[in-house]
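for the writeup, i need someone to sanity check this before i put it in the appendix. the sequnce is what the collaborator sent (i think, or maybe the updated version? ugh). structure was predicted straight from it, no edits. if anything looks off just tell me and ill rerun, i have time this weekend
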Amino acid sequence: MHDEVKDYYEVLQVSPNADPDTITRVFRLLAQRYHPDNPETGNEARFRELLEAHATLHDPVQRAQYDATYGQIRRERWRFVARGAEEGSDVAGEQQLRMKVLEILYARRRLEPHRPGLSVLDLAELMGTPLEHLDFAAWYLVQRQLVVRNDQSDLAITAAGVDAVEESRAPRPDVPRQLSEHVEESGRH
């Protein structure tokens, strides 16, 4: 496998479809945060990684070469994931992922009862999980009627979902903090 190729899109926290202006904006924001001269959040290794990712993705020729390699690596990863799914190797991980989705939606409904839904993209960002990994979890939770999709395709927890969370365990302590940070950010837009 191509372990030496870093996921520069992940490093810059942007979509592979991001335009050059978005890549530069996000780079500047992250570079400011991780610059070694920043006494609170400076991180020289992370800063160098950001510089490398920006240099590659900002230049159209380098980006095209990177995308060709990156696309091949992504296909290899998905083949590996598909083999693992066929073998049923990550049932416990999938259960934990679904419970984490329910806990986040539980906290969202409690904090914002008039806007209880979150998009799958928002959930992926909150959880630090690739969007593709949530497809199965979202499907399953909808089928079990633990969550519903609203008119904007956002997921919202149902009463049955609330019962499932409360029966399984207390909400995770990091979920309300992450959710409140997300709510503050979405309120600024």
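The chain has a mean pLDDT of 82. The longest strand covers residues 147-149.
thx in advance!!
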